[in-house]
Specification:
Number of strands: 2
Distance between the termini: 29 Å
Number of helices: 17
Oligomer: single chain
Length: about 350
């Protein structure tokens, strides 16, 4: 059982891994094909795993947050209002980032601005379940309902942004957060039977599917992804598109293809998440002393996520090119620079949080 006042450093580690991989994925898309390094193709392949990590950790974090609130003697209503405010902040950040990327595209600006919106909705939906008497049963029931809806829609889901299609659709992302909440409660309680019941079938089923189709196919478009296309207006960036709209300019349609993890790939993706957690758990003696520094981005995950998007967005805006990195090793240099700034911002955030705690 994990003491309620302690941080789950393995979860900080998973958040850090997700951020490092997401920076690589987003950066790869800015590198011209001929000069992409050997790390670029794997980073794009791991997209479903990265998304699953973010959503699962959003659910698990609610278990830790509610346990901390109980330890402080905070009333349930007060905690729920704080979670609602947090969800609102996360959602608004997602809207702002979408605006600067694609402008005031309606209704997508408010309905499907990206994974932060899916995380915000998961917080709103799961906070009452996390603080209920039976959080595991509630979370697993909601996950089963979500996966049942995906199964009912069939292998090629009806394009219903933001439900089953578009930018970080709610299915399967909210069910992933539900499973994360159940796993987080299990970790806090030290309930090995629950954790085994959740993880072993995913590992076995995912392993069998990987043998049948190959690991790459279960993360790739052959089996593991369902694609959908959304048409936006304008081919520039958010502010330019907004200005063109205000001036009544004719904007060309720009189709953008998104993917979501398929239903059949869910056990495989979940199994990979479990294996990553176990790897961190088993290697704890190697990193425990340096965890506070090593996992800084994971301790300030929202700050790290937003900052890396802003930095890469500034690079594109400054050059005016969709793929501005055309020189060998430019991608690697930018990756190192972005990570350095992400770690610096996370360190400053950590210092500010410590000062805030001392002041209170």
């Amino acid at each position: 059982m994990i003491e309620p006042g302690n941080r789950a450093e393995e979860l900080d580690g998973l958040r850090t891994l997700a951020i490092l991989a997401m920076v690589a994925t987003h950066l790869t898309r800015l590198i011209s094909g001929p000069v992409r390094g050997p790390w670029c193709a794997p980073s794009l392949l791991l997209d479903p795993l990265i998304q699953a990590l973010f959503m699962g950790l959003a659910g698990a974090s609610l278990a830790w947050s509610w346990r901390g609130a109980q330890r402080r003697g905070q009333a349930r209503g007060t905690w729920l209002r704080a979670r609602a405010r947090r969800a609102g902040e996360v959602y608004l950040v997602g809207v702002v980032l979408f605006f600067f990327d694609k402008g005031p595209q309606l209704p997508h600006l408010f309905l499907a601005p990206g994974i932060l919106a899916a995380i915000a909705l998961s917080i709103v939906v799961l906070a009452p379940i996390a603080s209920s008497r039976h959080p595991v049963a509630g979370a697993l029931s909601l996950a089963a309902l979500g996966y049942g809806a995906m199964a009912a829609l069939g292998p090629t889901p009806i394009a219903l942004p933001p439900i089953t299609a578009g930018n970080a659709a709610l299915l399967p992302n909210v069910p992933l957060a539900c499973l994360g909440l159940a796993a987080g409660v299990g970790l806090l309680r030290g309930d090995r039977r629950l954790l085994a019941a959740m993880s072993l079938p995913a590992l076995v089923w995912g392993g069998w599917l990987a043998l049948q189709h190959g690991p790459a196919a279960l993360l790739g478009y052959e089996v593991g992804r369902v694609t959908s296309t959304v048409s936006y207006r304008g081919k520039s960036h958010g502010l330019d598109i907004a200005l063109d709209m205000l001036q009544g300019a004719e904007l060309a349609e720009r189709p953008v293809e998104y993917f979501n993890s398929s239903l059949v790939a869910q056990p495989f993706v979940l199994g990979l998440v479990v294996l990553l957690y176990l790897l961190l758990r088993l290697s704890r003696p190697l990193w425990q002393r340096g965890a506070a520094l090593l996992f800084l981005p994971g301790r300030a995950s929202l700050t790290s996520y937003v900052l890396h998007l802003l930095l890469l967005g500034l690079l594109v805006a400054a050059t005016g090119k969709a793929k501005p990195l055309t020189v060998p090793w430019a991608g690697e240099a930018v990756y190192i620079a972005v990570l350095a700034l992400v770690y610096l911002a996370a360190a400053l955030n950590e210092r500010w949080m410590h000062r805030k705690k001392r002041a209170s």
